[in-house]
Specification:
The protein is mainly alpha-helical. Helices cover 86% and strands 0% of the residues. The protein has one domain (44-188).
Length: 189
């Protein structure tokens, strides 16, 4: 950027070129911010910052057990019942006993499956709400940073426009309104 003394000696074409360069930089900054505020980018950044993307299969099971011990215990119990039923079926001489036992095990697994499904759904809902709260906080913080950065850039750029000091607030307000309208148009798309 050029300083204020150079702006006073610049021709209208040079001032327009400088304004175009400032607009291009501002557009690039807004585009970058919009890219960074996409949910996929926020979720990816969150996973990277929390270390979830570096977990191995063993780490994932350990992490899941620490977070959801009841669900994993029930799953282990279900696998144990399946193994028990398999060995019982082979040892049972009567087809009648085998069928009632198999039916009983099937009902137990259905109940176990329903319980596990309900637990997983509830945990997923809780995690979804927690992630949404985190994303809302990050979006609010990023919006605040973007607003501050745009205001600083705008103030610096507006200070370089030649004109009486009394006109600066009007010019700044006009530029802010134009930027707000432009951002609304961009965000609607």
């Amino acid at each position: 950027m050029t300083d204020l003394s150079q702006n006073e000696t610049m021709s209208p074409d040079q001032l327009e070129a400088e304004a175009d360069r400032a607009r291009q930089r501002l557009n690039a900054t807004v585009d970058e911010l919009l890219q960074n505020l996409r949910p996929k980018s926020l979720a990816s950044e969150w996973a990277q910052n929390t270390g979830l993307n570096r977990l191995t299969a063993g780490d994932t099971i350990e992490f899941a057990y620490r977070r959801h011990p009841v669900a994993l215990t029930l799953a282990g119990l279900g696998i144990g019942l399946l193994a028990y039923a398999s060995t019982r079926r082979r040892a049972s001489p009567s087809p009648q006993n085998r069928q009632s036992f198999t039916q009983s095990i099937g009902e137990s697994f259905a109940e176990l499956g329903d319980t596990i499904t309900n637990i997983i759904r509830e945990r997923a809902r809780q995690n979804s709400e927690r992630l949404l709260r985190i994303a809302e906080k990050e979006v609010a913080a990023t919006t605040e940073r973007v607003t501050d950065a745009v205001e600083q850039s705008l103030e610096g750029w507006m200070a370089k426009i030649p004109g009486p000091p009394a006109a600066q607030p009007l010019l700044t307000s006009s530029a802010q309104l134009l930027l707000a309208a432009a951002l609304q148009a961009i965000l609607r798309k």
